[in-house]
Every structure is written in structure tokens, then in C-alpha cells.
């Protein structure tokens, strides 16, 4: 006890106590925040919805993701992905996958919106994660298309093209076109980072900026083609290939015509 009492007077004792206090308070705050977030995500779902969601998950998803959602060699863990990830993947038909591949393609959804919401609610109970966005952040009438263009060009255009037409990536992967995609799925994609896409949480792109990006993309959808061939709005590569192919064909045809005339 005497030795311990002496250590209390050590110059570093106060520093050690401060570090311990910070660690303790930070840990308690993290636990409280996690609990509140998980509760907030699931309180919008009824007990019956969560029960039905669990049944749907076990019947359709557990083969790859495990009965407890912790993942298997065939599929990643879903603990902590949140309701938004499930709503995006299942709502766009990417999940369940038809076959293994470098990327899950979009296809017709296999579940109704109600069933998708039930599965999303169940997965949200496995661990805290991004929730399905609120309607106010999907209302493009409140968005700023000009600011959305700045955010999109700075963060998304290198993969999805400045016109949102998509583009090729490496090893058979690709950035899909964003034309015709529902507002909620665009928001959820930014939230959850599906496939090869990075996650843009609220610290990177705020909910208001996400709404601006959606507004910009919807403005592009409604913009008329100024004329000529759109070529998918894929930019100079497709345009250059088109000009090269057609131009070369014209030159060859003109040469053949001149040769036949001289003969």
C-alpha cells in the first residue's frame, strides 16, 4: 500500500488517470450510440415484419450469408450493413445473385417492396448500419442541381461518366448507368458503397449534398439531346471510335469508287 501511495504522487499519474477517464467515457458513449442507432433503425418495423423478414432471410439468403448473417465462404457478413444495403441490393434485383461473377448485375427484383422492407428490417437488427433514407432527402424539388453537379463531378464522374452513363472498370467490372435509377437507390448506393463503389457517409457527402446529386442526375434525364447521335453519352472514346469507323469506311468506299471510275 505504501508503494501504491507513492505512485499516486508520480508526475505522470494525472496523465494516466486522464487517459483512463477518456477511454472509459469514449467506450460508454460508443455503446450508447450503437444501441440508440440500432433501436432507431428497427423501431419503424413491427414485430411481425421482423419475424417475416427473418423467415425470408433464412429461406433465401442464409445459404450464402449464414443463418446468423455472419457470412460464409460464399458470401460476406451482413452484420452492420444496415437496412439501406438490403433495400438497395434486393430492391434493384442484384440480390439474390443468379451466378457468381465479378459483379452482381441489375435485374428484375424477385421480392415485392413489402418483402424487401421486411428483410431490410431484419438485417438492421443484426447490427447498426445505414438506414433507408427519409423522404425529405429524396425530394428533388428541394435539391440544387448546380451544387449536385459539382459534387458528382468531383466524386463520381471518374467511374460513372460526367453524364451518369456509366463506364468500364477493370477485370470485368463496370460502373452502371445512373439513368432511370430510383432516387432512393441512388442515395443508398452513396450510403453503402455497393460492388466497387466507395462509401460516401454523411461526413464525406452530407444528406443535403446527396439530394443535390440526385437532383443533378434527374435533371440530366430530362435534358433533351441537342442533336446528332447521343452514342450513350459515353464521351470521346465512343465518339472517336464512331468517327474513325465511319470515316475510314467512307474513305475506303470513296477510293474504290475513284478506282472503278478510272478503270
TrEMBL record:
Binds 2 heme c groups covalently per subunit. Signal peptide: none annotated. Gene3D superfamilies: Cytochrome c-like domain (1.10.760.10). It is a multi-pass membrane protein. GO terms for cellular component: plasma membrane. Heme c 2 binds at residues 156, 159-160. Keywords: Cell membrane, Electron transport, Heme, Iron, Membrane, Metal-binding, Repeat, Respiratory chain, Translocase, Transmembrane, Transmembrane helix, Transport. PROSITE patterns: CYTC (PS51007). Heme c 1 binds at residues 61, 64-65. SUPFAM superfamilies: Cytochrome c (SSF46626). Its EC number is 7.1.1.8. It comes from the Bacteria. PANTHER family: CBB3-TYPE CYTOCHROME C OXIDASE SUBUNIT FIXP, CYTOCHROME BC1 COMPLEX CYTOCHROME C SUBUNIT. This is Cytochrome bc1 complex cytochrome c subunit. It comes from Kocuria sediminis. The lineage of its organism: Bacteria, Bacillati, Actinomycetota, Actinomycetes, Micrococcales.
